[in-house]
């Protein structure tokens, strides 16, 4: 069974690069442009992992993760924050919201896949 990953980023180029990396590794990829759009796609279908940017319009990544974790179907869905933010307080906020990993852009595809494969749910 193909695992589904939701990629949330307001940058189309980042979504494309992450999407190609994941599709190349055999994953099914859903895309969202911000936290609000991402939540609208969390309708109860199985999502095995979420990769989210932090700084986005409408709803930022940390707010999105906080809201996502309130949904019973996604309470245990692992989240990787993919961001240009390296600030410790942002990382702590991400962790408090429920993020399991923090990958700083620009990322290496191998590094991204390592994090994905460590965290993805069976």
UniProtKB/TrEMBL annotation:
Entry keyword Phosphoprotein: yes
Coiled-coil regions, chain positions: none
Positions of the Response regulatory domain: 4-120
PROSITE patterns reported for this sequence: RESPONSE_REGULATORY
Modified residues (4-aspartylphosphate): 53
Top-level taxon: Bacteria
Keywords (A to Z) from UniProt: Phosphoprotein
Pfam families, per database record: Response_reg (PF00072)
InterPro entries, per database record: Bact_response_regulator, CheY-like_superfamily, Sig_transdc_resp-reg_receiver
Protein name: Two-component system chemotaxis response regulator CheY
Species annotation: Rheinheimera soli
